[in-house]
Amino acid sequence: MNNIVAIVGRPNVGKSTLFNRLTKTRRAIVAEEAGTTRDRQYGKTDWEGQEFSIIDTGGWVINSDDVFESEIKRQVSLAIDEADVILFVVDVMSGITDYDLEIANMLRRGKKPVILASNKVDTFEAQYQAAEFYSLGLGEPYILSALNGLGTGELLDEIIKHFPEKNNSDEDDYLDELPRFAIVGRPNAGKSSLVNAFLDDNRSIVTDIAGTTRDSIYTRYNKFGHDFYLVDTAGIRKKAKVNEDLEYYSVIRSIRAIENSDVCVLMIDATRGIESQDLNIFSIIQKNKKGLVVCVNKWDLIEEKSAKSIKTFEKAIRERLAPFVDFPIIFTSALTKQRIFKVIETAVQVYENKVRKVSTAKLNEFILPLIENYPPPALKGKYIKIKYATQLPNTQIPTFVFFANLPQYVKEPYRRYLENKIRSEWDFSGTPIQLFMRQK
């Protein structure tokens, strides 16, 4: 179960710099993936073996030049609702401002653990100025320079102390046996209508398991030969406290659902097309290595529904979500229940693709002749020889290892070529694939 840390504070105290610093602390183990630069606001990191997510709430403020008091208040109340730990950043150079006092009042009233970080301690003298933040009543201020990294280790040590204890109950083990599908998307794309369309027919078969995680509800669905859980964030069925027009609101709400699922159904509103917020959510799905089904809802409202218009729409979606393009797209209407069961069938198929295993013999029989006909391009006059490949067992997504004499010389375009060939032979539609090169 992943924990969420939210960074709050008024504008220009260095929230984003701190976010970048913390999400890159242990980034050495993460490859530079294509297409992950879209989302400055969400990152994953780990410290002392504990993995957690970090959200920079300020990253979602649309016009950060004129952030009104109400906008900051909404961000903070959102963080209090959604995060496990709140990191309140203040600026040691400008001291306590009215905004800081306002935020501190809200945080003291909230029930979540708060860590106070006095940032911009870039000189030795500046650390003594941090003492004035004791008066905010939030405990000891941690001295920090997000710019040069001073104090980040101590800060991370403090953060992980506040995570709730893991409870490995039988309920969690039981949940692990069945696929979990999350329906995500921005407000008004039709998530609730789709969930309700699935569940309303036969309420008796549906059982809610609440409280397994603080705010995801698992709804067991077993009919028509399918058996799985719908991961439903609390926000889907009850009207949330925060106004739904906030871009970051729906993204933060989606994070837990995505992290607790196997396959995500990303709902896109046909009348609005794909928007930046859809890209943000897609990016979180990719970062968490989850299966993907894109569901274009409200198709009943589109006037011209020819095969050509479907092709055009599909092409536009794949172009926006590139380089990952091998995923199913379904055109539905939750209102008229058109093709909604196709969504379930496709999600089940994507789950099967995600756990598919290819035998080493079959893999090599298929891929080695292709490599021989089109070997990796030579680099610095050295020829790269790939000897054999195998799929690793027990991985979150299909992971293939290629053994070569000079693995470091195999570049991204060639990896993509190998991935495309594997996808052309076996059905991995909707699931990301990892390829590693290893020294033979």
Q: What would you say this structure looks like, in words?
A:
- It is a single chain.
- The strands form three sheets. This protein has a seven-stranded mixed β-sheet, with helices on both faces. The chain has a six-stranded mixed β-sheet with strand order 2-3-1-4-5-6, with helices on both faces. The chain has a three-stranded mixed β-sheet with strand order 14-15-16.
- The chain is of the alpha/beta class and 440 residues long.
- About 10% of the residues have low confidence.
- The longest helix has 15 residues.
- It is globular.
- It is built from 14 helices and 16 strands.
Assembly level = single chain
Q: Kindly state the mean pLDDT as a whole number?
A: 78
Low-confidence sequence ranges: 26-39, 60-64, 202-215, 234-245
Number of strands: 16
Please identify the structural class as seen in this structure: alpha/beta
Number of helical segments with 4 or more residues: 14
Helix residue percentage = 25-40%
Order of helices and strands: EHEEHEHEHEHHEHEEEHHEHEHEHHEEHE
Q: Which term fits the overall shape?
A: globular
Beta strand %? 15-25%
Query: What's the end-to-end separation, in Å?
Result: 36 Å
Radius of gyration: 24 Å
